[in-house]
Design a protein that fits this description.
By secondary structure, the protein is an alpha/beta fold. The two termini are 28 Å apart. The mean pLDDT is 97.
């Protein structure tokens, strides 16, 4: 079975919210839209939290069994390479092969020349169905792909072979370049897909670096019209390449750090419907923030824990922010002081943290800091997990409503 036209990567850092997440997928299904579930978790998250891919698989299977979900679901080995693939292989069936670290590394001169010779057939203006203007493939574009991305494609093939040779269930294969410091435009994407086809990697999704900033847990930063124009071109290029290069006909775009990009969802949804295309959206750590909102709504010890996470994260700002420097934009001087936050009631705390831009108390600075502060909850150990159980109703309501109301509806029904 291959993944469906629409899928969402539902991050669940502490493995407690599978049932609440399935409820959101059930609700969109009732609206007539089938969306496959992909539970994604990176090697870094597993390492920080102290979980394993075996835990990830068990949590997914248990959520499906408990809810009676009859749709497709996957467990994603998110952002893996040769160095960390092995412990995912037995438990995952969606493999996000991340070649970001390979970008800019040269392959052999012989491989470069062979690729450039084959890619000459792409030179010129390529008419892409769904676009008003052709995509221009110049010698410079071909050389750029050869110099910057060809080694990464070769590495993706090595990783794919390693997973396959070790018995991996390769139901879904993604090649990811989204954490690159430089974007890949539609012309580069077309040539990269040609290289992937030449390497005979049977990919199902491809993730690129888009124009603008995709910061964690907050809305898109950049010109929305410019993004949507590029997104349309990328989606059209993927559809064209799947047929022209013999890639899978179901090949679709994957949008990483896709949570909370509310200004983009209606346009993205319109484009994939107009082009009869698919999309995979990764929502990453949004669920963790909804857990904190649920705790704060519950008051008492739940609110105390949420405030403690903020106070500790504020004091460890540099340590927490550094690994995410490329995907957050926090002005530390604009963060409220922990003493001020300690004086907030549940309603005020929730208003600051919940991503509701119509609320004057919404604070994107605080939200981003809390997003990267999940290490603080890890250090709390059983105390945090027990609080989630105590406030289960509030937490589940927020997890489900966030995923359905703020993500699925605008993207698939907007």
């Amino acid at each position: 079975m291959t993944i469906g036209r629409y899928s969402i990567g539902a991050g669940d850092r502490f493995g407690k919210e599978g049932i609440a997440q399935v409820a959101a997928f059930e609700r969109i299904k009732q609206e007539g839209v089938d969306v496959d579930i992909v539970w994604n978790k990176s090697n870094r998250e597993h390492t920080i939290i102290g979980t394993s891919p075996a835990d990830q698989r068990r949590n997914a299977d248990e959520a499906v069994k408990a809810t009676g979900w009859t749709g497709q679901y996957f467990v994603d080995a998110d952002h893996i390479g040769l160095a960390n693939a092995d412990w995912f292989i037995a438990h995952c069936d969606f493999f996000t092969i991340d070649v970001t670290d390979c970008i800019g590394r040269p392959t052999t001169p012989e491989a470069t020349q062979e690729f450039l010779a084959k890619a000459q057939q792409l030179r010129g203006n390529v008419d892409i169905p769904g676009l008003d203007q052709p995509i221009s493939i110049t010698d410079e574009v071909l050389q750029t792909v050869a110099d910057r991305y060809l080694f990464g494609v070769e590495e993706a093939r090595r990783i794919y072979d390693h997973i396959k040779d070790n018995g991996g269930n390769l139901r879904h294969v993604e090649v990811s370049m989204d954490e690159s410091p430089e974007r890949q435009g539609p012309a580069e994407l077309l040539v990269i897909l040609f290289a992937i086809a030449e390497a005979n990697i049977p990919i199902d999704t491809v993730a690129v670096k888009f124009v603008g900033r995709f910061n964690k847990g907050v809305d898109y930063v950049g010109d929305v019209d410019e993004f949507l124009a590029e997104f349309r071109a990328d989606v059209a290029v993927i559809k064209y390449a799947s047929k022209a290069f013999g890639l899978k006909p179901t090949l679709k775009i994957s949008v990483h750090t896709g949570s909370d990009k509310f200004s983009l969802y209606p346009g993205m949804g319109r484009i994939v419907r107009e082009l009869d295309a698919g999309i995979h959206l990764k929502t990453a750590g949004t669920t963790w923030l909804e857990e904190l909102i649920g705790l704060a709504e519950g008051g008492g010890e739940g609110l105390a824990i949420a405030k403690e996470v903020y106070r500790t994260a504020h004091g460890k700002y540099d340590e927490l922010a550094a690994p995410y420097a490329d995907v957050i934009a926090i002005a530390p001087e604009e963060l409220p002081s922990p003493d001020e936050v300690d004086g907030w009631d549940s309603e005020r705390f929730v208003a600051a943290l919940r991503h509701d831009q119509s609320n004057p108390n919404y604070d994107p600075q605080l939200r981003q800091l809390m997003h990267v502060g999940f290490k603080i909850a890890v250090a709390m150990g059983p105390r945090y997990l027990e609080a989630l159980d105590t406030h289960r109703a509030e937490v589940e309501r927020n997890v489900t409503e966030n995923l359905y109301e703020r993500h699925m509806k605008p993207l698939f029904l907007g």
